[in-house]
Amino acid sequence: MEMTKVIIGKKVGMSQIFDEAGKVVPVTVIEAGPCVVTQVKTVDKDGYDAIQLGFEDVAEKKLTKPEIGHLKKAGVGLKRHLKEFRLADCSKFEVGDEIKADMFQKGDQVDITGTSKGKGYQGAIKRFNAQRTPTSHGGGPVHRHAGSMGSTSTPSRIYKGKIGAGHMGDEQVTVQNLDIVAIDPELNMIAVRGAVPGPKGGIVTLKNTVINRSKVKGPAQTVSSNPQKRSARG
């Protein structure tokens, strides 16, 4: 599935709402847009088709001179966050077009990308969910160490990617196939089912999901027709 819808937003926080059946639905509220198209790239000029979106107004003193020149040339105002997206059809966008939360609709599935919370410098147990050694007699003061890496004379080094202490979090994370539960076009708010990476106030991007959902045909496979089974008796 190709990308056709996209918007930049800010994570407001988590809450819960009730659906039509009265069930509690955990949601993440996102302030989506308004975004403005700051640049349209084409194959003839740039070698590929893409659009650049700007989000959140900012003072001129907080931008670099190249950023100021780029935005003033577009004539769309100064924006703090700029992101580029390759959509299936970029020809329908022009510089200055405004994209709001109503680009999406209730029931849409989206992929949301954000920057996870930084955890600082952590050990192997917290960082990689490793297991500590037994704390019985004779264990020694190495209960939370990473342990032997199995490095002998061949190859006489540690391969990259082995578990160990280091910087945890603060990396790009994408959560796929989340449902949009509610939209408020006036406030540019979108409520998405489930959790979204990043802290409150973190910048996220919403894109229509790239996962193809297969439609269920007939009764679900998990429901048995055997009357002696509980799933068949209801």
What does it look like?
With 234 residues, the chain is mainly beta. It has a domain at 119-169: Ribosomal protein L3, domain 3 (Irregular). The protein has 4 helices and 12 strands. The longest helix is centred in the first third of the chain and has 10 residues, at 65-74. It starts with 5 loop residues before the first strand and ends with a helix.
Summarize the structure.
10% of the residues lie in helices and 37% in strands.
Salient structural properties:
234 residues; single chain; Ribosomal protein L3, domain 3; extended; 37% strand; mainly beta; 6-stranded antiparallel β-barrel
Within the largest sheet, what's the order of strands? Answer: 1-2-11-10-7-12
| Spans of at least 5 consecutive residues with low confidence | none
Range of strand content: 35-45%
Topology-level CATH name of one domain: Ribosomal protein L3, domain 3
CATH class of one domain: Few Secondary Structures
